[in-house]
Every structure is written in C-alpha cells, then in structure tokens.
Design goal:
Elements lengths: L6 E6 L6 H10 L5 E7 L10 H12 L5 E6 L3 H7 L4 E6 L2 H17 L4 E6 L9 H9 L10 H10 L4
C-alpha cells in the first residue's frame, strides 16, 4: 500500500526569510513529506523586497532541496491549501503574544475547510526574538545580521542597505 505524500503549507510574507523561518521549515519536514513555502502577496503591506525577490531568495536558501517547494499566492489560504492537496498549515510561534491572532486565524481556517489542519511549531529558543521587521531595522542602521538570515538573504539585504 503506497502512502500519500503529506504536504504542508508554510505561509508568510517572508520579507525577508530569517533563520527562524528556516528552523520552522526544517522541523516541519520531520513531520511532513513536503513543505510548500508560500509567499503571501499582500498589496496592503509595504514590502522591502518584491514578490519575485522573496521567492528567489527562499529558493536559493534551500538550494533546490526537493522536499521544499517555493510558491506565491493571493486569496484565501485554505483555498490555496486545497489546490495544492495540503493536509496542514504550518504556523511558527515565538511568544504568547503570537497565540491569540494565530488561534483566531486557525479557527477561521478550520471553519472554511475542516480537512486542513493548523500545526503550530514553537520557534527554536535561539530565534525567539527574531522577526523580519527587527532584522530589517537592524540592517537599515548598519547592524550585523549575518547570523540571523541565510547567505542569499544577507547578500540582498546588503544591496538594499549598504554599510556606510
């Protein structure tokens, strides 16, 4: 009897991808056969990187690892998950402050599609205070972010914020 591939979606803006995101993706791969890193197209957010740049940086960061697919989407996440035959939506949580909004989102997703489960993974302790916005702010003012982002992201960040 062949086992169906268990696919999970890890959605986010990934502006930019951080080592905290990578930690979540790698741990999700211990549970699922494939993880689709789905870059959200949210026109209301003022992104530092274009959608294409974010997708490219993520692909480069995983260097063609077959179990990780990178895509972009707009619209309802549960519709996207159904289209991709995903069984779960992965959400990373750093602190208690993340819980309320993530819980509300999970309940709404469950109401919209009961066949797609929400799976919450606590971020690794090393990345608990890391966020894309904090990394962007540090880089903007010349801070060393080299141990917080993968190499392809660091290169693009230094293009956006050259050290003075």
């Amino acid at each position: 009897m062949s086992q169906k591939n268990r696919i999970a979606i890890y959605p986010g803006s990934f502006d930019p991808l951080t080592n905290g995101h990578i930690d979540i993706i790698e741990r999700a791969l211990e549970i699922f056969d494939k993880v689709i890193v789905a870059v959200l197209n949210n026109p209301s957010k003022n992104a530092l990187f274009t959608m294409e740049e974010r997708v490219q940086m993520i692909k480069q960061s995983f260097n063609g690892k077959n179990s990780i697919l990178v895509d972009s989407f707009g619209g309802l996440l549960v519709d996207y998950a159904k289209m991709k035959d995903a069984v779960a939506i992965i959400r990373g949580m750093r602190a208690l402050s993340d819980f309320e909004s993530e819980f509300q989102m999970a309940l709404m997703n469950r109401k919209l599609n009961k066949d797609v489960q929400s799976v919450f993974l606590m971020t690794g302790f090393r990345w608990i205070f890391t966020s894309s916005s904090i990394i962007k702010e540090a880089a903007q003012f010349g801070g060393d972010i080299s141990d917080m982002v993968p190499k392809p992201v660091l290169v693009k960040m230094l293009e956006k914020f050259p050290k003075q």
